[in-house]
Specification:
Strand content: 25-35%
CATH superfamily: Electron Transport, Fmn-binding Protein, Chain A
Helix content: 25-40%
Distance between the termini: 25 Å
Number of domains: 1
Number of helices: 5
Largest sheet: 8 strands, antiparallel
CATH topology: Pnp Oxidase, Chain A
Amino acid sequence: MPRTPPAPAPRLSAADQARTLVAARRAGSLATLADDGGPWASVVAYAALDDGRPVLLVSRLAEHGRNLARDPRASLVVAAPATGDDVLAAARVTLAGVAERPAAALAEAALARYVAAVPGGRDVAGFDDFALWVLRVNRVRWVGGYARMASVTAADYAAASPAARPAG
């Protein structure tokens, strides 16, 4: 009796892939708007909340910190390490939205997440020039390498599971 080959395993959704990548990394490129309206990108450390929102702890002495204080629109690019010479074959995600200063319980949870995830985070958290920010994600663009990309809604991103396993 001939055997039926197993069905291919379903792929993770783009939202799950994006959340998995954000959960796995601790640094990204933060793009802010400079005082002349032009773009400014900086490498930053981050942690992720349970809904995937990035938590940033940035100095007001840094240009990106001053930019956020003046205009909180921002995006964060998180990329997987390249496994070969072609960096564009690696997965990456862009999260765009508005950076907000968290209040009360969210601030405590965000700071706890940040210092747990980022070595040295506790050391700078008490400095007066550092401010805690949470990126409210409005747009998500996931790229899984060549010919694998998708836009994801903010709601689907927030509801997705990092390191989720496909059903089936």
